Amino acid sequence: MTKQQGFTLIELMIVVAVIGVLSAIAIPQYQKYVAKAEVASVLTTMTGVKTNVEAFVVENGEFPGGVDGRRPSDLGAPDNMPLGVFTFEDFKDDTGKIKLTFKSEGVNALLKNDSLVLTRATETGTWTCTSSNIEKALLPKGCTSTATSN
Q1: Is residue 2's pLDDT more than 80?
Q2: Which of 59, 77, 144, 145 could form a disulfide with 72 if both were Cys (CB 3.0 to 4.6 A apart)?
């Protein structure tokens, strides 16, 4: 009677197959978690800018970027944010949008060239978070999306 001294080829192949199946499931989920973290980071930065914009609207009675030509960086948005570029859009009187467009490089593949928008409503001064191209599963609670899920 001899004692077994190692693993058989079949046992090693089974281990490799199990690792392959686990990684096929884990890698896409990891990519989604990274994308969610990047969106949350951007929303946190946008919330800081939103506070400064709100103060500007209260003091001046108009959304920044209009007559005065203020840029997002004048109100606390980072100039060279690694994830994307801030812009003010559709500003009229005390309404407007703060938009971040994700870059095409250096961001998660699920977010490339997509955008996140905070919109200020005139009547109530409330802000809404929307995206037309980021899937709902990647957005924080309170944000809406019209994008189709993949």
Answers
A1: no
A2: 77
